[in-house]
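hi! just following up on the protien thing from before. the input was this:
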Amino acid sequence: MNIVMRADASISIGTGHVIRCLALADVLKSQGAACLFICRLQAGHLFDLIRARGHALYAVSDDASEVGRNWAADAARTRSAIGGLYPDWLIVDHYQLGLEWECEIKSAVARLLVIDDIGRAHRCDILLDQNFHNSVHALYRRSLNDETQLLLGSEFALVRPEFPILRTQALRRRDGSLTRLLVSMGGSDPGNETSKVLEGLQAGWQSEWTVDVVVGGSNPHVNSVADACARLPNVSLHVQTAKMAELMLAADCAITAGGSTTWERCCLGLPALVTVLSDDQLAIAEAVAKAGAQVILGRDSELIAADYAGSIAALTPVSLRAMSAAAAAICDGRGAERVAARLH
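and the predicted 3d structure came back as:
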């Protein structure tokens, strides 16, 4: 099969769209498919990572106009990138490209898969919303035609294969201990929530703690985060790490954003204190919290360092074990395999 992926990463929109497409592309590649990524050239792109995973890349030149305001131009560029390939599937994961773009591009491809999680109207062959069942899912059924196949729920979460490999080992060690913390506020963290978390940790520091701090290569505050890490003992900074699965395995609790890493954490049964960084994260974060798999601290704009210190201090072995069990029940990490099977 020939597969085309249309997704972007940047400092402003983060890295999650490309990362979850990569999870699916890796599975498809292992099954013999050829995958081409079409991505805009903008600050915070993940071109090196895409190429390192063995996928082809077509870089679309950036311009002054936003993608969403000029969807027709983006569709024309996408058609140009596809050329005469007529791929078996075009997979699009982009909040700024919607129904009009899909109708325009559909004649250039055999079939279209749309990844979404904000309940928009679409015209596609498969609609994938990988998030734990929440109120947004009902919106798709109202707008899609009968021919569209719906893949809804965290059983379809696009988790990279290194996570389910470690699932049994991770669940075995979740005993309610709290000696190792993982701080990860998304690939770009434009508001520098990471430094706020570290300030909170410093205020309530415990001598037995070891802390891993993860930031993306596009994080504009990496120098200030590095300085904050240096002021604390037993803190390691990881920039654009390829070892996220191992870090989640080792952690007892994550302090994190409410993005697509939710499903990686759930796969490994990792308890979490969650900060909501954007409106699109809220419904998902609330649904997972209602299931008992995490604690929502609030919106980033509303939180101060003391909130992080207090929330960590409130954790108990009982609450950590309960969160771990609830998280593990939400996602087993095999979603990319299940979605890939629907494309054959």
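The CA atoms of residues 7 and 94 lie 6 Å apart.
The two ends are 8 Å apart (CA to CA).
cheers
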